[in-house]
Automatic annotation (TrEMBL), chain B:
This is Anion transporter. Residues 25-295 form the ArsA/GET3 Anion-transporting ATPase-like domain. It comes from the Bacteria.
Amino acid sequence: MGSLRDVRARDTDWDGVRLHVVTGKGGTGKTTVAAALALALAAGGRKVLLVEVEGRQGIAQVFDLPPLPYEERRIAVAPDGGDVHALSIDPEEAMLDYLEMFYGMRRAGKALTKMGVVDFATTIAPGFRDVLVTGKTTEAVRRKNKDGRRVYDAVVLDAPPTGRITRFLNVTNEVAGLARVGPIKNHADLVNGVVASPETAVHFVTLLEEMPVQETLDGLAELTAAGLPPGGIFTNMVRESLLPASVLDAAAGGRFDPAELALGLKAAGLADGASDAAAVAEALAEEIVEHARRTALEQRERESLDASGRPRYELPLLADGVDLAGLYELAESIRNQGAA
Amino acid sequence: MSERPGGHRDVPVLDLDAIIDDPGTRIIVCCGSGGVGKTTTAAALGLRAAERGRAAVVLTVDPARRLAQSMGLTELDNVPRPVEDVTGDGTLHAMMLDMKRTFDEIIEAHADPERARQILTNPFYQSLSSSFSGTQEYMAMEKLGQLRRSGEWDLIIVDTPPSRSALDFLDAPERLGRFLDGRLIRVLTAPAKAGGRSAFKLFNAGFGLIAGAMTKLLGAQVLKDLQTFVSALDAVFGGFRARAEQTYRLLQAPGTAFVVVAAPERDAMREASYFVERLAEERMPLAGVVINRVHRSPAEGLSAARSAAAAEELESRGGHDLAAAVLRLHTGRMQLAAREHREREHFVTAHPTVPVAEVPAMWEDVHDLEGLRQVGKLLAAQ
């Protein structure tokens, strides 16, 4: 086994993965899951970088911080000591970095920016923009300090949504049509060396609803076809059902007897008289039938996700919405399920 | 005015029937962040308008398969197709935008065959026309303009592309127009023209630096491809920006109604807020906000607090497991409703004059025309 620092109490499903790419359909909580995953990975004294690429300042919102600059900085401490750093990548700045790093041309870069070259990169050839952004991310993955160790134990990328993820990551292919040779092509190959390797896993965030599940399955198929490494599926905002299966089955079929419920309501002192208890029980019964139908639908969605053969993790719907405490709760759940 | 359960007394109500029934309404734009049910809202409004007598067409950009099927759309062919089984006097057509084909058609319509061929086969055109999200926005607007000019429909309902942010939809056409008309393009296409007048001297002095950097960044072949592409396209469009501005004016015109679609969640409501403010800045006519997927309870009289207390009471005493579980469930539901209500109140406080419509959450997605009809009813029943 490696050094003391690498020894962990238990195996996780993604040992050896250094770049965790998190995608998902809009509204599924992709940024929240990426943030919680970063916290979970950092737990126990590790150093993790959380990266966002779409300029939405989603990380700052989730961690309740002022907008993040284009600079890696520590934003949170993980359970049992560990650090989460964050970086909000701005394509324009990434381009300047790139020019400076490879050619020592910062001044020319600034002139290019003034001339609208970033407009160019984002408008005419999105592949270029993606190369710059993924380039910056993979550089952080590969970066080593003086004693030859990686600076970050893991990098979590809050990536573009499911519909765009394969194109975003498949940079070599994207720029191939534009640049068969030359510096951009070389850079893309370097990025591809990380993104298409077993050091990377692309995780999907979904809800247990038809559309996001379908998009997840389509996204997985597309990703795999492009030779990119699929990761796990995080089903987010899962509501636990407290009712026994027999009751749920009956209710899903529209059969729920409110009489027993009415007795319970009376026992709890919620009703003034028999008719009142019956009325409340009727209303609640309607709620139960709807809940049971939804639960049955969710079960079907789980089954179609499981048919993909990918590891699946369930994250609870947080009663008070996502706040910092909720984020730590999700991180713990991720660790308990072995995803980190 | 009736007050909604848990509603806010002073919030104006968005009357969508009044909007779709008004013959003066010619365009409805549904916008909002991804995953809030924008496309479903657009389709349901289209169906309802048709069944109330309008000749309506719904332009969708990237519908989920089942939603497309619910309108009988099976292929992405860039042509409005009649939707069958619409009742009443009106008609409904629906189409899915094929942005590459729309772009190709513009090129073919405006360039001679030789130049069109040059453009269509250029690798930059391939990239621009098929993979950039801004192109999708631009082409959606282009298609909207085409449908409007055709005069075949008296109501066009357009669903905006699933942008990373709702605002991309407003910015992308302008950005694409500005880009194709911009300084960089001038430099790339006509370095020889620069010079002479003093205004261009500085410009020219910088050119060597820029060309050098571009070559290093992209490689010489790429730069050459780009120059060829840009000059061919430039000759075709001349006023690409003018075209974008024309689309902009169409959106500002009376007869256009923006419907911002949201869900009662923090991110979606925040996007809705930005969009409402932005529309006001751009002097674009906002009809109101539709909040989808609002959780309500048939037993709203039983508060979360009472329900939780009662569940606890039963659990500690034992014996009424079912009732206790049902009460726990109800507590969760009421808490969710309360949270959603707070999100909505934040929005309403910031935008007290914006009409709002709420649509309750449904336990499954829309699969057929009847499902769309139900959504339409819920949209109208405020």
